[in-house]
Design goal:
This protein has helices at about 20-40, 40-65, 75-95, 100-110, 115-120, 125-130, 135-140, 140-155, 160-185, 190, 195-205, 220-230, 235-245, 255-280; strands at about 70, 75. With about 290 residues, the protein is mostly helical. A hairpin with a 2-residue loop joins strand 1 (about 70) and strand 2 (about 75). Helix 3 packs antiparallel against helix 8 (about 140-155), helix 4 (about 100-110) packs parallel to helix 9 (about 160-185) and helix 9 runs antiparallel to helix 13.
């Protein structure tokens, strides 16, 4: 029997509360992706080895460059390695989370399987964006993170918690910006059917983000590229700003971080509008 002075035990309203529906769906997608990857272990291992080889080739190439020079437009060896690691982290997240799904969007339209996605009781853009995860690509985060840690240790500059928070926030902003660009290109599959040329356009543009923004200055053509890809389509800011934050370089000009955040937010809003607009033009396989 319960003692007289003991207050009654109230049921815990949070006990046994399932996670939000979208969280459960994401976990299910991750589990399905793991099962798929483990069904083809050889392909999974080959992808990991291939990415490790590409990572090593990039590292060796820039190490050879920095044996001949001390800095490249103000970026020392280990500052550039931190920049390169930052770019790899952002690209890895994009390729692992969104690239397989956006590339598969045109196939859903061609086969009529988009009908089934539209009938599911979940946001269609969410389903299209996250259904498949490339775990082989996601493993590349280990190499990128190791390179970033090595570069920061060699620089010997203390990193405070606000820097870490801002760095991670800028990484998230960069991923959001690239995602908005990718889902916008994928949405055009509704009108064009196959849009492989637009995906080529994606790779041709994002190749500029592999180098710091300051490298493009010093000539008319370089200044023009720097202007266009900083303030019109700010892909040069996506990697440069997080890297500058983590290596304690001064942002030039100081308000460019605000431009990057505004571009990411605007990109998400516009890409959502384009995606919904494209669905209105979709004609189902049964129509």
């Amino acid at each position: 029997m319960r003692p007289m002075n003991t207050p009654p035990v109230m049921p815990n309203a949070n006990a046994g509360t399932p996670p939000p529906p979208y969280v459960r769906v994401l976990l299910m997608f991750a589990r399905n992706s793991l099962v798929r990857e483990m069904s083809f272990r050889g392909n999974f291992l080959i992808e990991i080895v291939t990415r490790a080889f590409w990572f090593s080739a990039q590292l060796v190439m820039f190490d050879l460059i920095y044996r001949s020079v001390d800095t490249v437009n103000g970026w020392s060896r280990y500052e550039f390695f931190a920049f390169m690691a930052t770019g790899m982290i952002i690209n890895t997240l994009i390729e692992a989370l969104f690239m397989p799904n956006c590339a598969n969007f045109s196939e859903l339209i061609r086969t009529g399987n988009l009908d089934f996605a539209l009938l599911k009781p979940i946001d269609t853009q969410f389903l299209i964006s996250f259904e498949k995860l490339d775990l082989g690509s996601l493993s590349h985060l280990l190499l990128s993170g190791s390179l970033l840690g090595y570069a920061l240790v060699q620089l010997g500059r203390p990193i405070a918690a606000p820097q870490v928070a801002m760095y991670l926030g800028m990484i998230g902003v960069g991923v959001a910006f690239f995602y908005s660009l990718m889902i916008t290109l994928a949405s055009t599959s509704i009108w064009f059917g196959r849009n492989q040329g637009l995906y080529d356009f994606w790779f041709y543009i994002t190749i500029f983000a592999r180098y710091p923004r300051s490298i493009y200055g010093g000539s008319r053509a370089g200044d023009l590229l720097q202007l266009v890809f900083s303030y019109v389509l700010p892909i040069l800011l996506v990697v440069t700003i997080p890297a500058e934050v983590v290596v304690r370089k001064t942002l030039e000009p100081s308000w460019v971080a605000a431009v990057m955040v505004a571009a990411a937010l605007l990109g998400l809003v516009l890409s959502r509008r384009v995606f919904q607009w494209s669905l209105k033009s979709y004609r189902s396989a049964s129509s």
